Amino acid sequence: MAKRKRAGWYFILPSLAGVLVFYLIPFGDVVRRSFQRAAGDGFAGLGNYRQVFQNAAFRLAAGNTIRFVSICLPLLLILSLGLAVLLQRQKKGRNLWKSAYLVPLAVPAASLVLFWNIVFDKAGLLNGVLDHFHLTGKDWMNTDAAFWVLVFSYIWKNLGYDVILWLAGLLGISESVYEAAKVDGAGEWKSFLYITLPHIRPVAFTIVIVSFLNSFKVFREAYLVAGNYPQEKIYLLQHVFNNWFSDLSVDKMAAGSVLLCGVITVFVMILQRSWGE
Questions:
Q1: Are 256 and 241 in contact (CB under 8 A)?
Q2: Are 242 and 228 in contact (CB under 8 A)?
Q3: CB 3.0-4.6 Å disulfide test: which of 37, 73, 160, 174 passes with 101?
């Protein structure tokens, strides 16, 4: 038995070594630097963390990011689950719809940005349509509307992927369970509440985590459209870290990274406690 246990460790040792060298040790160095001055000479204590919290750009970006995630995540989960339930009931053409839902994932970020410029520019297609109906247009990406363009972009890009993930969980539920519920007099809503939702809880945990992580990728589109300093409603945490990196503000960047990792870890732990198995 002891030999078998040692053999198991030998198999996972390369992976553990990779995690240690490429993840744990670098992160430990980031934590160390978060308590040092920018040049690395001298102990700063909690000074770097105070600078981060007092930084107006960080507070603006944190607020925008929280607002973005709190709006996009529930919208995406509800819409994708609803479409997955409809697709589950549709027997004919299901594979065709599944392929159609995945098309947005194949669209490169640069192409999506080109579409944004064509539609939402001050002289773009949307303003042209509004002008045709004698309505006043505006420079959409330089107004508060830019935030909702970003929301739409995120949902459009990730909706199909989440639908496929939900569908994988839904198709794993036996039809006989639903038939037994119908015999007992359960309607569609009760079947959904007491059969579907409990069975897809493990899948839901995975989908929420994946969708949450994908929300950070929307920075690519915002950056390609407006650069380092976009309209303030779409100024996200990624912009702050990118600008700190350009300015070589290692102290603030390290402290901010530790804070962000802490928030994400707490979020995942709460989710795991609530929905995970």
A1: yes
A2: yes
A3: 160
Q: What SS3 state is found at 121? A: coil
Helices (H), the chain: 2-19, 25-33, 47-54, 56-89, 94-101, 109-120, 125-132, 145-170, 175-183, 188-191, 197-199, 201-214, 219-226, 237-246, 250-275
76/152 Cα distance (integer angstroms) = 10
Token pair in block for residue 18: 């990779």
pLDDT digits (tens, 9 = 90+) for 36-77: 887 666 787 788 889 888 989 999 999 999 999 999 999 999
pLDDT digits (tens, 9 = 90+) for 94-153: 667 767 777 777 778 777 788 887 888 777 788 888 887 877 777 777 888 889 888 988
One-letter amino acid at 123 equals: A
Q: Are 141 and 226 in contact (CB under 8 A)?
A: yes
Q: pLDDT tens digit string along 178-229?
A: 778 787 777 778 777 777 888 888 888 889 988 998 888 888 888 887 778 8
Alpha carbons 29 and 151: distance in angstroms, whole number: 35
